[in-house]
Each structure stands twice: as structure tokens, then as C-alpha cells.
Here is the input.
Amino acid sequence: MSPHTHAFQAEVAQLLHLVTHSLYSNPDIFARELISNASDACDKLRFEALNNPALYEDQPNLEVRVSIDKAAKTITIADNGIGMSEQEAIDNLGTIAKSGTKDFVSKLTGDQKADSQLIGQFGVGFYSGFIVADKITVETRRAGLKPEEGVRWVSGGAGDFSTETITRPGRGTSITLHLREDKQDYLNSYKLKSIISQYSDHIGLPILMPKEEWKEGEEGQPGDMVQTGEWEQVNEASALWTRPKKDITPEQYNNFYQTLAHDFEDPLAWSHNKVEGNTEYTQLLYIPARAPFDLYQRDHKHGLKLYVRRVFIMDEAESLLPQYLRFVKGVVDASDLPLNVSRELLQESRDIKTIREGNTRRVLAMLEDMAKQQATPPDSAEGKTDVGSGESVPAPEPVETEDGVTDVVDKSDAAPAAEAAAAFAEQKTGANKYATFYAEFGAVLKEGLGEDTGNRDRIAKLLRFASTTTDTVSVSFADYKARMKEGQEAIYYITADSLSAAKNSPQLELFRKKGIEVLLMADRVDEWALSFLHEFDGTPLQSVAKGAVDLGKLQDEEEKKAAEAAQETAKPLLEKLKEALKADAQDVRATTRLVDSPACLVSEDNGMSVQLARMLKQAGQPVPDIKPVLEVNVDHALIRKLAEVQDDATRFNDLAQVLFDQALLAEGGMPADPAAYVRRVNALLA
Ligand SMILES: Nc1ncnc2c1ncn2[C@@H]1O[C@H](COP(=O)(O)OP(=O)(O)OP(=O)(O)O)[C@@H](O)[C@H]1O
Here is the structure.
């Protein structure tokens, strides 16, 4: 049958252009990506064959063979894994199924450097072949289909590809890269072998390459390496997590991570443990250095790779970690689960519950170590004993889980001294690891306050905020508490749409005057997350934008009395204002919280803040119609002016409305009728 031509999905075409242009300086990764796909394909076959052993046909040994054809200038990577049907080849190699891809591609700027950073968050997979090849031929046959149902897929990496039916006796996939003119150095088998063994060493199945031997040249001719006709294995072929920690170098851990996560960067930290007890499993967990582009997509795929006794079961097993730790990558190899376990069964399994709790504790411990590391610079004595990355993550003490099972962490194969030193040296350069982590994933971690009641206190300790004393997101609740003024009874915070809106909010005026620190929160998730945390270490949390201002012992008696007196004297004016603004404000009252501003908006103590209501509305969520309270500074000139014009109803109403709209603007809102607001202000200015 003659080949059919198909167009790439538009985003694929754009991505391909980007891959070949931006990743040009990083060509070796094609080997990692294609070998990782081959290994995944073998994992999938092994899994499907659990229920259908006939899929193995006459080839029960799964392997990948990599060969070079110098004359044809090609490299071929062949596996005997699951293979693809024609439709699968068209779908899998011509479209990208990830949601949010369109958005992602539209963010690309055309600037190679910036884009190559972005692409790291995406993972290019199969398409990385086009970095070194100007044409790729894929020949594949799905396990279980007839030999005549093979398919050949060919593309030059531009706008389209072709497919045709072929006869392929063996199942699986071979990918032939027709090397670009300037990438012919990969035809050197020594070079290719060293790249492949580096990228595939941790892969659990054999990677074979043709064996070569040195042959002396005849009659004065120079000697050369020649193929012996045999194959040799170039990797260790034991899955990394199954090896003792002492035999694994940091570089191998990093390489494994990059393959697993399709990331170009090294992770910030990892933790590798064999957990014994009623539920036995091995966990290898990584904290990435960069958030993937789709971290906030509703259907973002997350979770760990699940193996049962070294047999791959599934990718993205989301039951192995809570949602708020969805940034963690890694592998869990469980000893006690049935091989035919399904996603549905996982959700109900007690073993999985134990593993999930164990993983959660371990990740929180890694984060605590990173945070501690950051707080204690590594050149201080304390930092040295407490290295927080990789092998050196100290295992948390055995912890009783809810169902009484004790996780015992195997600490016997501790890192040898040289490696510990290497890990430590790495730490030195990585003193900002926690800040890096927090900038990427802090907002996700906060979701844990609502999601994980049991670990709420541990999560709260890991949170960092900007405050009125520092613009950097670095203040923990504990730091704040240590700096609290004598007599201060609450941890004060403000939520706003942005850091600058928070910082400039009129609600902070009194706090500033009195030198009281206020935490500034500008993440969308903050208000929701904080609604689950009422106190930290015995000190209540108090939003400065909710309820009447209560500085407790920090407010002196005289001020209190003066405020009460002002409230009393201003009563008729406040009543009038309330009447004029009855459509907008549920109450109008005098306040002491303002110093320079005439008015501000607050919400009732247990109510939803104005800012959260606005955010929900923008997101199309139903919002109860709650009106804010307008608080006014009776000492302000504008309020005095209001008092003066009380008898002129039109002027009074206009001024009152301007006062309300300005308070709304000051905290990031928008007047209900902006044109009317402008008209009123202009009338006042004229
Ligand atoms: N050697 C192979 N054997 C069988 N299927 C393959 C092979 N290589 C690729 N595929 C199929 O093509 C799909 C796309 O591969 P690609 O590497 O682009 O992305 P991926 O591996 O799914 O995603 P990511 O790289 O983000 O993990 C794979 O999901 C798989 O279904």
C-alpha cells in the first residue's frame, strides 16, 4: 500500500521547530529520551502480558538494541516492547495529548535561550530525535497484531509525516535516525556507547550494542575498530532503586531523575529508602527544581511510577501521594501488592494508604531539611551535620502510622564518606535550595493546609511569606513570632491580589505606625489555605482586613478612649454615610487603623474577604452577595469636608461615593461604575 501523508497537529509542528532550534546545544538528550521510551514500551508489554502471556510471542527476553550504520549515516534504536498499531503511531507521534499544550506553545517567544528554558518544563520525548536527525523512520508492530499489520512512519520533522503498512515479523519498535550533516559524530560507536551507558545505566533492561574489536591494518594500513557480529550489554540493567544506596553515585541519581521526569535540570533533592514493616516497599522520591508548565491544570498528570516486585504497573499513580505534593517525582516499588492491581483498587488498598503516608512524611522531611539548610548556612558547624539533599537526607525516626504500623527505615547502607563530602560540596552551592523550591512550589504546598489535616502543623512550619519588613518571600511563622512585639497577641497578615497591593494597603497604616510586622500574602491560594489555619504554635492568626482592628495590649488606653469618643461624635455623620452608601456597604464605622488614608474596606470577622469574593467572581464561581464594611478615619480632611457639606445632599452623596470607590481601588478592586467615578472626581477637581 502506498504511504499516506498526515499533517502534524499545529502545536507539534511548532514544538518541533523549537526543539531543533533551541535544544541544538544539548543534542545528547535524544539518547536518553528514546531509550526511556523504549524501556517504557517494554514495561508496558510486561504489564499487558501478565494477563496475556501470548503477547511475548517467541521473544520473552525484553531488550533494546542500538546500532550504527556508517554507510547509511543512521542510528537505530530498536526495542521488542509493546509496539504501536498504525492508528497509535499516528496519534502518539503526530499529536500531543497533554492539555494546556496550546497555552504553553503560545508562551514561547522565539528567543532561543528563553524558550530552551521553557521547553525543559515540557519534556520533548520522541521529538528530541529531530535535534540530531533530519529524518526519522519508525517501524513498529503492536504485540498481538499480525506481522502484516506493521507500520512504517516517516517524517522530516517539518509539517507532516507519512505512514504505510509493512510486514514486520518481530513485535516492537525500531527508530532510525538519519543524522544531520553536522551530527555525524554520533556515528562513532565509542562516543555513542559512552552516552548511552551514561543515560541507560539505571534502566532495568539490557541495552545492547554491536561488539567491536581492534583490528590491526594490513600491509601498513592503519588499524580500526571492527564489529565482531556479537552484541554486548552496555548498561548494568538493574533498576536503580533496587541497588544499595552505597553503590549509587549522585550523578546516577541525577541521571535517573532526568530520565524519569524528562527534565533537563538536576533535582533539588532526593530520598531513597527501603521501608520495612507490615508494608514493605522501596521509595525513591525527587524534588524537582522547576515547576512543569501544567502544574495548575486541573487534569495535570501527577503521581509516582508504581512497580510491584520490579514489574512496572503504572505511571502517575496518584494515590501514592496527596494532591498538594503533586510536584514530587519518583518510583515506589511495593512488595505486597497483587500484580493485577488497578487504579480503583489502589484507592482502597490499606497498603497504599500506608505507603502514601510514608511518602508524605518523607517528602515533608526532605523539605524540612532543605529549609533548615537554608536557615543555617552550610559553612556553620550546624549546617555540616545536617546535609539536606540526596543520600544525606537523614531518615526520619520510625513513626507510628494511624493503623499502628511502624515504618522502619533501612539506614544500614549509609553513604560512604567521599560521597557524603561530595553531597555536602553540592549543598554549599545549593544554599538557596529551599528558596528555589518555594518560589516554584510554595503555592502548591499551601494547599496542604486544607488537604492534609494530620500534617497541618508541619506544613505551616514550611510556609514562607513576604512581610512589611522584607520584600522577599522568606519569613516563616516562627521567624515572625520570634520578632513579635511585647504584648502582641496575634500573627497579623493581609491578603491581596499582588505584593504591592498588599504592601500599600491602607489597612497597614496603624501597624506601620506602631512598628508591628504584618505578613503580606499575594498568592491566589493564600486566603483559602489560611482559612484552615487559625493559629500557629498557640498564637492566633488575624487578618488585618477582617473585623474591627484589635491590637489587644498594643493599643493604649488613651487611643481606645479617643477612638470611642470619635465614634460617638461622628455618629450622625456615620449614619448619614451609611444611608448614602447602603447599596455598597453593610456598615460604616470609625476606625483607628488608618493614619494617612480617609477610608478602607474590611470584611466581617468570619466573612469572606472582599478580595476572595472578587477572585471567585472572576473565576465564574457563585459568590454570596456580601457587602464590605467601610471604615473611616474621622481625623482625615476628607471626612471633615464630608461633615461640612452634610446639608448639600448631592455633594454629600457624590463625595461619599468617591470615598467608597477610592477605598475599593486602594485594595485592588474596581468601582462598579468606573465612568461615574471619573465624572464625580472630575466634578470635585474642577
Ligand atoms: N519505542 C516506543 N514503543 C512504543 N510506543 C512508543 C515508543 N516511543 C514512543 N511511543 C509512543 O509515543 C508516545 C509519545 O512519546 P513521547 O516521548 O513524545 O511522549 P511521552 O513519553 O508519552 O511523554 P513524556 O515524554 O512527557 O513522558 C508515547 O507515549 C508512546 O505511546
